[in-house]
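Before the break, one more example. Copy the sequence into your notebook; we will annotate it together after we see the structure.
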Amino acid sequence: MRFGRAAGPKRSTGSRSPRGWRNRILAIGAAVLALPVAAGIAAPTAAVAAPVASPVQRGAYEELMVPSSMGPIKVQVQWAARGGNAGLYLLDGLRAQEDRNAWSFETNALQQFGNDNISLIMPVGGQSSFYADWYSPSNTNGQKFTYKWETFLTRELPAFLEGYGVSRTNNAIAGLSMGGSAALALAAYHRDQFKSAAAYSGYLNISAPGMREAIRIAMLDAGRFNVDSMAAPWSPQWLRMDPFVFAPQLKGLPMYISAASGLPGPHDKPASALGLFNTGNAMALEALSLVNTRAFQGRLKSLGINAYFDFPNVGTHSWKYWESQLFASRQMFLDSTNGW
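Here is what the structure looks like once it is written out:
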């Protein structure tokens, strides 16, 4: 396989039902509603040498195949409109697909930043990974390799993109749900790479009672992944992954953090039994995220750490609300990276 630019399917503007945990975890979600779920990461390894790349077409969309310790990883990119070196990494949710990053087709992210001098970096894959470096392949679904997403996002991918003019040290990062928690974690441990971070509907206290069990069930439901392959129950990795624990390392970082009420809003219009099920699921997940996010707000306040929080009165755990939150945080990304 040739690494570099790769042909890929045309981007779709269609929508699909919100992705989330299924009905059998709603009881756990309700039971732990008052508890503050999260992102995981671990120590990086070797970097990938930057490719010798031909000049990019400013403002154009491309799909790259990037070598990694996990094998070739597709990365969707919209290049900066005027050749700037800034990058905005957009992380997917728990049910990340293997063919495309949902930011590219569930939202208008490409249009939002189409005239800005910042490249959108959208890695593809990583279902149930929490964008972490795992200890071993999952043994419950026959996974053939070990997830090493922190290594990829902070070593291998930046080195590769450098050959295309994207700086290793002038980036912002954002994500929703699983990706929102991971965005804060990656920014906390890689302050030299990321200048700002946003978490939309994230789960921000995985040390709370019941949270690990909820994550276990969610990961089994999304791809039959074994959470113990990410971090053993006794592993200190759980503390390293917990935003409540690493919160002091976020001091001075521009942050945008949001979660809605879970009440249906203008983008919730179920027209079938399946639609009603998905909306109910999205309501429960967002309510749980709201409790987590409120608690995390209190944690940052106790540490004297500033961040911008937004709590819309309506909205569920679904893409059109995250699209709006991305736009609301756009100025922070551009200001922190000089991506105007």
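Strands lie at 4-5, 61-66, 73-78, 86-91, 118-123, 171-176, 194-200, 255-258, 308-310. The mean pLDDT is 87. Try to locate both features in your own notes.
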